[in-house]
Write a structure and sequence with these properties.
Blueprint lengths: L3 H9 L5 E2 L3 H9 L3 E4 L5 E7 L19 H9 L3 H7 L6 E2 L9 H5 L6 H11 L3 H10 L7 E6 L8 H14 L3 E6 L2 H9 L6 E7 L3 H9 L12 H10 L5 H18 L2 E7 L2 E4 L4 E3 L17 E2 L2
Parallel strand pairs: 5-6, 5-7
Antiparallel strand pairs: 1-9, 2-9, 3-7, 3-8, 4-8, 10-11
Length: 308
């Protein structure tokens, strides 16, 4: 069910007992007697990708795609009013994210030293909301009049605000002179495009997860990956080195170097970490404990405790 109001209606009607309801609608659910259950960890990341950054696949790279220019990627990041999105669409229930799939607590617990404090210290300077600087960067990149590009919009389980976030960012990009074209599409069509490295000149969003070591292979590797978003020879070399290292400290150093590279190159448009939330009918479900990442469906359903 792509529409949040429809999901809420089915919950209230008793047709379902667990539903993915936008945060903006949760107060209506609570007013009708439903409860909101939060995950134990903030394992859901909001991240948007630039299509066509195949620097490690020269046969797939189209140098005419504007996103190939680093200044463009920085400009589009600096055009996004992250605070407004967090306050208005996520009701302030968002934690800042710095590098896609790198979690400051979860990943750093697995790999002590993985998180670079400089990502926090430099984020405002490099990524912070600054439309004037964004327009100047576009001019430096050779796009004083902006350019047109596609924004793919589709609902995602675990992130019901996905479409609204895309629309909000499109308004921010319009404000700096860009010409985003909003295209509502079924997710499988977008998945086919990025898996075949044919999503040039478009942006799309996903909900990421923690576990950087595993996610980098899925997202940033030029071969045997899954998403094929940002590829680069530096990441290829570092991943190859990672395959021959056993020492945890040495592996952590390599993973941090990959994170530094992605941060400095504006590889993605990383927005927030979120606790996953489920709206439940307390007449049926007394409690539900789940970790945090919703990769398209709810997990750990065996921990649901039914009401007496």
């Amino acid at each position: 069910m792509p529409e949040g109001v429809t999901r809420l209606a089915t919950l209230l009607a008793g047709e379902v007992h667990v539903a993915d309801v936008e945060r903006a609608l949760q107060k209506d659910a609570v007013a009708k007697g439903m409860q909101i259950v939060s995950s134990t960890l903030s394992g859901n990341q909001v991240v948007w990708y630039f299509g066509g950054l195949y620097f490690a696949s020269p046969d797939k790279l189209n140098p005419k795609v504007p996103f190939v220019a680093k200044q463009v990627r920085q400009a589009m990041n600096m055009a996004i009013n992250r605070q407004a999105i967090a306050d208005n669409l996520l009701l302030g229930k968002a934690q800042p994210a710095r590098v896609a799939t790198y979690h400051p607590e979860l990943d750093n617990t697995l790999w002590p030293g993985l998180w670079n404090p400089a990502w926090d210290q430099r984020f405002e300077e490099m990524y912070g909301y600054n439309p004037s600087r964004a327009r100047a960067l576009l001019q430096e990149a050779g796009y004083p009049q902006g350019f047109a590009f596609t924004v793919y919009l589709f609902p995602l389980a675990g992130l019901p605000e996905q479409v609204d976030i895309g629309q909000a960012m499109a308004l921010d990009w319009q404000a700096i002179g860009l010409k985003p074209k909003l295209v509502e599409v079924d997710f499988p069509r977008v998945r086919e495009l990025y898996r075949t490295k044919a999503i040039h000149g478009a942006v799309w969003g996903l909900r990421g997860r923690a576990l950087a070591a595993d996610s980098i292979r899925i997202i940033n590797r030029s071969q045997d990956g899954v998403i094929y978003a940002y590829e680069h020879p530096f990441i290829e070399e570092r991943l190859q080195a990672l395959g021959s290292l056993l020492d945890p400290g040495a592996r952590t150093k390599v993973l941090r170097e990959i994170g530094d590279h992605k941060f400095n190159e504006f590889a993605e448009m990383t927005l927030f970490w979120l606790f996953a939330e489920a709206a439940v009918n307390p007449k049926v479900i007394a409690d539900y404990v789940f970790p945090g990442s919703i990769p398209g469906f709810y997990t750990h359903l065996e921990y649901i405790k039914l009401a007496p």
